[in-house]
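Title: [Solved] HIRA-interacting protein 5 3D structure

Original question kept below for reference.
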Amino acid sequence: MFIQTEDTPNPDALKFNPNTRILPENISSPFLEYLSPRSTLAPPHPSPLAAKLLNVDGVTSVFFGADYITVSKDSATPWAHVKPEVFSIINEFILSGQQIVNTVEDKAGESGQGGTEQDSLAYDENDSEVVGMIKELLETRIRPAIQEDGGDIEFRGFHDGQVLLKLRGACRTCDSSTVTLKNGIESMLMHYIEEVQGVQQVMDQEEEIAMEEFAKFEEKLRQQKGLDAAPSTIGKGSLDTAEG
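Solution (posted by the thread starter after getting help):
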């Protein structure tokens, strides 16, 4: 099997294109994101492949698009230590014919993965005209570029002139891409839709806590190593943030 790899704007995320369908056709979301080993086992869409990948030293998250996989690692682990094992796991798993993503009943109301609900950019007859225009622009002009970079985007609402968005995959923890997306998304939406006054990135509470803890850990490392310590790409970037 030939698996192509692509760099993303995030140096700690690689996009793997295995030339086969990754997400089952019956899943309405255009992506699934696994941020912890527990999420790979939890309903409604556990994934044995994501479980294997998150077991690789240094891997921090696994993102499934329709036909690609984005793997993110921590900034301290070089790709030379991660990429061969990830490549091998994906290759062997797909050749084995196993189901990449399963669907199980969510009896306890526990959602283990990001992106398991209806596509947030899908048409909804209850949307206002402005929200409908925002979704259409995001779907046709913004999403393709983000998917090309190994991520995706969620629409979380429109309030007081602010479009609330959540970045996924490679874009979720990348400073450079969030700067670009902030400028690109915000300027495009404000240009075409006069009601839009700005864009805010939404972060779930767990992410806020995790990033605060990581920042403390990184600062401790920097103090130990001195000013030569390499900065991480994990951060809030220049995007405004709002609690999810």
